[in-house]
Amino acid sequence: KNFNVFTCESCKAFFRRNALKLKEYKCSLRDNCSIDITTRKLCRKCRLQKCFDSGMKKEYILSEEQKQMRKIRKQVNGVNNCKPADDSDTGDSSQESVATTDTKSSCDGIVHHNHGESNDCDQGVVIIDKLIDDKRPLAEWESTRLREMMTILNELKNKYKSKLVAEVTDLDMACRAFSYNCERDAYKFIRLSNSLTAFQ
Amino acid sequence: KNFNVFTCESCKAFFRRNALKLKEYKCSLRDNCSIDITTRKLCRKCRLQKCFDSGMKKEYILSEEQKQMRKIRKQVNGVNNCKPADDSDTGDSSQESVATTDTKSSCDGIVHHNHGESNDCDQGVVIIDKLIDDKRPLAEWESTRLREMMTILNELKNKYKSKLVAEVTDLDMACRAFSYNCERDAYKFIRLSNSLTAFQ
DNA sequence: AACAGGTCACGAAGGTCA
DNA sequence: TGACCTTCGTGACCTGTT
């Protein structure tokens, strides 16, 4: 049973990927395409509709938040395995690029479009990695703060996600703006972090 | 398989380009030209007819809308991969300079601050205010900083809202790019936070 | 064992340019 | 026009959680 119905793997994957975007699709015919193993790929709208009609439930799909938690947990585990925590625990700040390397590998699971090259945001991460290497602990409220910021970011994200209405002409410009802003936000977060008492 | 039939590249391309214009072509003979690798170019009408007869389906050709979508996506990706031209920002020792609000408007060629009108993004500000009220800690300049971010994002949103017109049907694409960036940053921050000693 | 999500090679669209 | 390239959705297979 996948999402409440016995399905093949492909339909499972299809549903997982598309169930939340029904509105985005349009049938080029009459919304009643017959869907079978050979015609399945022809009309996403109708295929998805059939999924729903057969009882598949989008509620069974994990929320972004839940998926995030999974991912994080996984990453944390990965880090723990890589770094023997108990092991003498000397730490100090050997400028070894451990943190950097680690960042790269664990991010690969998340970022597929950046084939190896560093981008704007990575620079930010480097800075933070540096701070971590210094091993200064964050006070509890400080780490709380960081989490809060994440929450805010998420809020924002959802906000934008649900706002797809209008139409845009100058996409290029807009995208560039987006890009710049993300970069800028990243730096702001970093600066904010730097200002926390633990780092002073 | 191309358009439902095993074909060579040339027929694939030919069909893609012409399948939707069958009516526009006329055979100068009797609509029964023989079509082979050497005569193919002589009569488009008959070549195309042969394509259809052999089972090629024009339904497999992406609609204009879909093609437009692709194009947009491509553009968005291109922008995302752009590196910041300026700002070598070493990060170095960082620290207190943070306090100065000169986060700088290096990007402000694109986005200007705009206090005043209220809209959805203000909710973001509200959230922050709440966080501030709650647990105490944000210094004034810190909340200022956060407000700043909200404002900037507001600007962006307005940019989109005010532009309507066609050509580009899909703001969603752009939004997705934005989300993507935020999401990625969020993950990084969270992961890094988790690796701080305070969390262990 | 069940059932979520993640991964990644691959097929088949469109795009490019000599 | 067509050989060659890029892109993205698909689905078989894997991982992780309950």
From TrEMBL, chains A, B:
Q: Which Pfam families match?
A: zf-C4
Give the Gene3D superfamilies listed for this entry: Erythroid Transcription Factor GATA-1, subunit A
Locations of Polar residues compositional bias?
Answer: 91-105
Q: Where is the Nuclear receptor domain?
A: 1-63
Q: Where is this region: Disordered?
A: 79-105
Q: At the top level of its lineage, which domain of life is listed?
A: Eukaryota
Gene Ontology molecular function: nuclear receptor activity; RNA polymerase II cis-regulatory region sequence-specific DNA binding; zinc ion binding
Instruction: Give a yes or no for keyword Zinc-finger in this entry.
Output: yes
Q: Which keywords annotate this record?
A: DNA-binding, Metal-binding, Nucleus, Receptor, Transcription, Transcription regulation, Zinc, Zinc-finger
Biological process according to GO: cell differentiation; negative regulation of transcription by RNA polymerase II; positive regulation of transcription by RNA polymerase II
Note the PROSITE patterns from the entry.
NUCLEAR_REC_DBD_2 (PS51030)
* Protein name as catalogued: Nuclear receptor domain-containing protein
Question: Where does this protein come from, organism-wise?
Answer: Medioppia subpectinata
